[in-house]
Structures are given as structure tokens and as C-alpha cells.
Amino acid sequence: MLMRTDPFREIDRLAEQFFGTAARPAMMHLDAYRDGDYFYAAFDLPGVDPDTIDCTVERNVLTVRAERRRPSGDGVELVAAERPMGTFTRQLFLGDTLDTDKLEAGYEHGVLTLRIPVAERAKPRRVTITANGDARRQINA
């Protein structure tokens, strides 16, 4: 059986809740990047049951909520508890250049990955250039 004697345990626990540590992050970690015509956001959620993940978009604010639960039952005896448990929430403010209506989400190997297409109006487009007097007639037409 493991026993730990620490007179400052409660102070440490309170500080970890607010500031986090390497073992107990205060928030879910995120990587965000653009690849071609898509924007990706990858959230680290190891050990989270996919059924507890909730992802919503409201007015270009993306909210991800997930819950990690401790094992429970009649025969379960907690020996050590160092992994963060409970509900984790993270919000991202998405730009108007993303098409949130076509957002796709997948959960694999403890990572929630969101794929959001870049809106057509935000994609680079070629502008036709005319030479000499053709441009003036085309602009005034």
C-alpha cells in the first residue's frame, strides 16, 4: 500500500488546480494549424471516453467540453491519484473566414481533431488584369 505524508498537501493541491503542473495540466492542450483549404485544431484528451466529449459552435465560438472519470465500483480501491479528473473545457474564437457549418470532428488515440474548411470568400482568387484602354472600358462598364 502507498502512503504519502506531506504537511503542505492541501496547499499544493489548491495551487495545482489554478496553475497546473506537467502531470496535471490546468487546461487541455491544443495544436492549431492551417493546411491548404482547411484549419485544424487538435486537443489532447487521453483517457477520455468519447461519449463524454461535447463540441459546440455558437457565433464563431468553438467550445470543447470533456470529462475524465475515475474508475468506480464495489471492488475498486484508489491507491494513487495523480491524473487530473473531472470536466475540462476550452474555447476558441474562430475567424469569419472559416465555414463552421461544415466542421468535422474525430477522436483517435486520445486526440480530438477538428477539421474546419476555409470559407470560399476567404480563399485566394485570381484577378483578371487587362492592359491599355481595355481596363478603363471594363471598369466603367
From TrEMBL:
Q: Which segments constitute the SHSP domain?
A: 21-132
Kindly give the CDD domains that the UniProt entry links to this protein: ACD_sHsps-like
Residues folding into a coiled coil are none
Family under the similarity heading: Belongs to the small heat shock protein (HSP20) family.
What protein name applies here?
Hsp20/alpha crystallin family protein
Q: Lineage from the top down?
A: Bacteria, Bacillati, Actinomycetota, Actinomycetes, Micromonosporales
